[in-house]
Structure of dynamin GTPase:
Amino acid sequence: MASASRLRAVRNMHVRAISFGTIPRIVARAFRVPMYGAGVGAGALTYANYKLEGVRTATNDMLDSISSTVHDGYDQASSLLSGVSSTLSSAAGSIGGELGTLADGVKENTSGFVNGFNEWWGGVKFGSGSTPSQERSSTAPAASIPPPPATRPASNESSGNQNGKGPEDDGPLAGGAAALAALTSAYMNREENKDEAEPAQPQELLQLTRKLIEIRQVLMSIDQSDALKLPSIVVIGSQSSGKSSVLEAIVGHEFLPKGDNMVTRRPIELTLVHTPDDGSGGPREYGVFPGLGGQKVTSFPSIQRTLTELNVAVPSSIAVSSDPIHLRIHSPHVPDLTLVDLPGYIQISSMDQPEELKDKISSLCDRYIQEPNIILAVCSADVDLANSAALRASRRVDPMGLRTIGVVTKMDLVLPELGASILKGNRYPLHLGYVGVVSKAPKGPGSDKIRHGGEAPNITGAIMRREEDFFGGENARYFYPPESSRRGLGSGQSLQGKVMVGTDTLRRRLMDVLETSMSGSLNGITNAVQLEMEEANYQFKVQYNDRRITAESYVAETIDALKAKFKEYTTQFTKPHVRAKLRAMLDDKVMDILEQLYWVDKRTEELSKLADDRKLKPEELASYWRYKLDTASSLLTKSGVGRDSTQLVAEGLRSLIDSIAMGEPFTYHPGAAERIVEFSHALLRERLNLTADQVENCIKPYKYEVEIEDREWDSGRARAEQAFDLEVARCESKLAEIKKKVGGAWRMKGLLGYVSDLEQKETERARRRFAAVNNSETSDSTDQYEPLDEPHPDSYKYSAAQLADAGKIAALFSDRLAVLKLRQAALKSRRCKMGPEQKAFCPEAFLSVVAEKLAYTSTMFINIELLEQFFYQFPREIDSRILYNLDREEILRFARENPVIRKHLDLQDRKDKLEQVMRSLQSLVNLRQETEPRSSRNQGLFTKFF
Ligand SMILES: Nc1nc2c(ncn2[C@@H]2O[C@H](COP(=O)(O)OP(=O)(O)OP(=O)(O)O)[C@@H](O)[C@H]2O)c(=O)[nH]1
């Protein structure tokens, strides 16, 4: 039997793994009608508001104009500021009459105002005009913080002033101021009657800013290059200087991360979108995190929580990340602004912070304070400005202070006279000036509400009241210079003597500066976008021949291609193909059975001789051989053919699907590939048992009786012959291989003799051992037998064990070849050709016929129960589980997984967005050209501030 198992090992060396080797491997302002010409009809208060704005604008524009005139005469800003007084008084005299006319006109009616304004407009030299909004000034503190009672003119005092003189007494400029005061009073009364929470929000303002903010967002989504950057306001300051409080005061809600352990770890890019209440009942105020799915977050405490989580997610070992958090806040109470909150400058790192943290924060801030951004340098009033990290940083990049606004927080913590002197900016002058605020969020019933999960109230009103209390009353004399001082402006006081206070003033200041800055960037950005757009169009033409694609079309094409590939490969599963595969599997089984029952049986030679006996009738053949044939037939039919054949076909299908899922383009879509494999395998699992049972049932009859026709016998015998030819050829080639290895025929012969001797000696040893065990007297006889091993001529080249192994294998192949040739001859004998009744003489032919019948029947049922079902269901499952199951986001993600498609989509998207931005910019440029005097075009940001 040892020999039998060795022979099986030899046979298995020839058994090719049954596999489907042929399965491929790849199985913006609607430029508001200029406010001066805007329709006025919304009632006296609105009307007064307009006038106030107009007069305020006119007054400030006059000053700007004067300063521009002065500027024309002086090269340096510092010379302007020191030399302005004489020029200013003469300039004031020359335009005072016009302003008086204007103020009178204001008192009369709207058209009077417009006419007066137009007169003034025409009369004043615009050395530095710019957009209508640029000509507007927001630097009038009186508009935001009501003048103190002592100085606040009552409405019936509107024609008077502090000295009890009429406007005429003090000249036209004072007259204008009186008109301004009267309107201020009316305006403030109106403001006081308004919803506390709602700050003064000139609805006509900032359309340009809004459009450019929209454009900025589009540009940011396609390019981070400096050429395509529009300005933003960057908030810098030392830790705890009050940056967050200022931003929250502007927004009107507490929403920024708070905590002791440096909770601002990432830049927060904040876009405020003024969204008037549309009366639809939807949320009036909400935040949107574009990076987190773009859902509306209507609760400011939730926004705060999200921001805190996103910040503290930065590991303390890194402490600061440059990856910005984008947040949009929509509210009827916010202006259109873009702001960036940055981590506060620190002096020294604490124990749990990296040592280089100070430098990291500094370089992060440095990246943001580059042009064209506006720097909001937040300094605490109770800390000497000389120690302000924010001012130091801004000076490095903006030495002239042309794009830096100083915000002095915590004004309540210093004496008012000290606070006012800081705001005058004499020590560290900034052209955009300093604004003093008291922006600490009030604690009150609102806080409790938040703590209990309620909606947070708007804090703007409370902050404004607190600021009014602080900057008004007794302290007003420091922050609101008396009228004589204001007039003093005209008699030579420095512009720097003006102080700006209050969060609302700051808000307006920011709106104005940002708008002016944006407006100044208009031409530059338009040119840059034009260039980028042309380049993108060119690339799109060259690379893709203007062929547009969509993520949806890519998904659809991919699915179609998948189905087509699947269909193509299914041709390998036609019935003849499947039958051939099953036949190959069963033929292999037949060989195993023959080997097991015949080839290792010494009497097989005898069977071959009996076949030559012409007189011997089949029924006369010894029952031994007939019984052997029945056993062989049972082994074949009862070997689990149903399961094995179904498994084989299912494996083929699995390999097919796997090869498709692993091939292009699914190499880019591992998620989809996994899903395809998953559901297809599940489908196969579902069908496997059912099909196997069906097949097993259908082949059941063959387990008991196999009827064979002559025709079937002939082809069975022919196939058996072929199988034997192949087996003989394999044995011969194997022997030739060994012969070559050992060094030729005679050496081979010697080796076989050597092995034969060894076997004989082994047999002798076994015999002696057996005798020794049976005979106690010769108990030590195992040691007595002489050593039988004799050296082989090749033993100097190979070890005895190697020689023995090679020899044994050679002997096995040699024996196998002998028996195969014997049976080959029998198959070709006359008896075997006679027909199926000779089956006991020719078991090879009989088993071949049975294998063919099993393969045929199995194929038929596998085709019906497995293949047809799978081929029908697979394409439908692809549709339902992949195509129809993807939402828009998933489709986009799927398409972008393919780098080729991603590149195509990115360029197409870039081209489209640049074209869209270009259209918006072009309409803004056109509108500006239509609405502006030729001389006032193309002015930069800072011209008006000189
Ligand atoms: N008295 C007073 N306290 C203020 C004022 N503004 C802010 N604070 C307080 O100053 C502390 C720091 O204010 P924040 O706004 O958190 O300062 P910050 O610069 O954002 O701090 P970091 O984000 O840690 O850098 C808080 O306790 C505020 O309540 C103010 O105008 N007056």
